[in-house]
Amino acid sequence: MSVADGPVLAMSREEANSLLAKSTDQAHEGRVYDYYLGGSSNYAVDRLFARKQIERVPDIPWAARQNRKFLTRVVQHMIDLGIRQFVDMGSGLPTEGNVHEIAEERAPGECRVVYVDHDAVASAHAYLLLERSGELERNAPVNGDLLAHERLWEVITGTGLIDPSQPVGLLLVAVLHFLPDELDPHRSVAFYRDQLPSGSCLAISHASTDQMSDDARERLSTVLRDYDRTTSKALARTRPQIREFFGDWSLVEPPGIVWTPEWYAPGAVRDDVGDADPSRSQIVAGLARKP
């Protein structure tokens, strides 16, 4: 079911299971990411691709976990700011620490989440996960392309879970680096910013080679180029380029736009990551709030 047809929430269990049996002949970025995180929602083609990338950059699984930890911290902070509804764009395959799970722990029974992914298989996974856990009432998967912003926003609000008159937490975590400039992702992100009321938040994490050694930059660049063989291309952007996605919204500073292990809400207790160089995370992240 595509964004033109409506939310995947309406699909049947049989349709979801049928979708999961397809799309196994080409590595998929969501399933590859699931493998990096130690998940089981991946196939042989994904594991082969992922292992090749890990041979090039052994830090990739650690980096994936750091990105996931950023997601946890930023959702918790938005809840602390009073936000109770979230749109997770490019949500990928369900794995441990999904947005609704983080929200339920922080604010039990209060939050609503719409998961959006362009891949029908990922949306089917989300549907079955939410169905099995009895959480479809306050959470909905939507299959759609974030670049089809006007129609997609209609579907998101049409779920009845997102009230556009109240602050929304918009999550663009590890998704924009799959959208090159020729697809004009800035136009779509600006559209979503315009739809959200004052007090809303935008969280972004994005691959970057800023402040890396020459060797690390070249190895990561090779990995990103190799994603041309998956269902999505990938690219790195600089911090100033990533800052443009936030528009005129005010960044939470400190920390600003930093490596994912460095992103903490002001005054938050930090995890001990030892002597790890934060650039090993390969992804920078930031949070902004609409005035």
Shape: globular
* Major sheet size, sense and barrel closure: 8 strands, mixed
Distance between the termini: 36 Å
What fraction strand?
A: 5-15%
- Return the string of H and E elements: HHHHEHEHEHEHEHHEEE
Overall structural class, as computed from helix and strand content, comes to alpha/beta
Counting DSSP H or I runs of 4 or more residues, the number of helices is 10
Structural features, described:
With 291 residues, the protein is α/β, with parallel strands linked by helices. The protein contains 10 helices and 8 strands. Strands 1, 2, 3, 4, 5, 6, 7 and 8 form an 8-stranded mixed sheet that branches. α1 crosses α6 and α2 packs across α3. The radius of gyration is 18 Å and the shape is globular.
Write the layout of secondary structure elements.
Blueprint: H1 13-20, H2 29-36, H3 44-56, H4 60-80, E1 85-89, H5 99-106, E2 112-117, H6 120-132, E3 139-143, H7 149-158, E4 169-173, H8 185-195, E5 201-207, H9 214-226, H10 239-243, E6 250-251, E7 258-259, E8 283-289
Parallel strand pairs: 1-2, 1-4, 2-3, 4-5
Antiparallel strand pairs: 5-8, 6-8, 7-8
Helix pairs in contact: 1-6, 2-3, 4-5
Task: Name its key features.
alpha/beta; eight-stranded mixed β-sheet; 291 residues
Short description, anyone?
With 291 residues, the protein is of the alpha/beta class. Helices cover 38% and strands 13% of the residues.
